[in-house]
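job 3f2a | input accepted
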Amino acid sequence: MVKVQFDHQVFSFQKFGGISRYFAALSTYLEKSPDFDHELKLLYSKNAYLSARNSIFHPRSESLFFQKHLTYFLNQKYSERLISLNDFDVFHPTYYNPYFLKRIKKPFVITVHDMIHELYPERFPKWDNTAARKKEVINRADHIIAISESTKSDLQRILNVPDSKISVIHHGLFNNILVGNEGKGFAFHIMEDYSFLLFIGSRKGYKNFDRFIEAAAPILHNNANLSIVCAGGGSFTENELKELERFRIKDKVVQISATESELNELYSKALFFIYPSIYEGFGLPILEAFHNSCPVAVSNTSCFPEVGGDAVVYFDPVDLHDMNQAMQSLVDSAELRKKLRQNGSERLSVFSTKECMEKTAAVYKSLV
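job 3f2a | predicted structure (368 res):
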């Protein structure tokens, strides 16, 4: 039996998110497999995909002890202790902090989700050291999982990683892993009275939200009952509100927080989902949209053609006219939206969660 040790990192800073959902799915798979044992344990986490047994302290505690940065520090100390015990066969860190390198005595594998920090350093704060940390971990890793051929290509081009050291393992949907009762959806007035375009998650930098707003503004002006819903990503910043005012669409763009079940409802009721990022490593929201029969308009860069295939409408993310025309085609054509729903359902079958888990398990076995 192979024992896999995970660490705290992504579960210390994510409540929801694709990376923590991926590792929680791996944990669930290994728990059910007769060939594996594993450990995923933290002192404290508010992550939505972990059960109470993964945290020593109750996740609802509001003590000052559990403030964000202190939580990360204490969880890391606990992970260091578990690594020092050496009671595992393979280590799989959940992000790129190299804190474990001085303690690790067993093989470890790192999953590389994208190379955005290396390709677009100007879009991150000067103090951000993710790229340097990632390089150190990748150079020391016994094996690397890249979540797309696009990410593998970037890895090899930027860091000269040999082909034999990388396995490309596409993500699956990773649904049905939420812990507890998350609610059965919500009543949101814009769903009842208006059609809306859906934007998901962070709006910073390479997510290209500013160009999207500029490209969408004329469409909103010409369609009285059309709005934009931004789910997640935090409240609009002062600069974002100024931009919405500048394009005279402030009253037609809303930001809301949404749980996973609520997000599924948003996908299912949206006119279409828009994903204008300059770059992504995989693009899990595309699969989420396919799963909820939501048409998709997406950038034609990086991993997107690899994931979207013929089931999405593509546009150049730096060409405002091209983005506008892609969105307009979906607004105008119910037939196109119907076709994309059908193609999306077929495309989703290409990205099997079971296959992702089995291939990752095979990597673990190869390192023992």
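job 3f2a | The chain has a mean pLDDT of 91.
job 3f2a | closed
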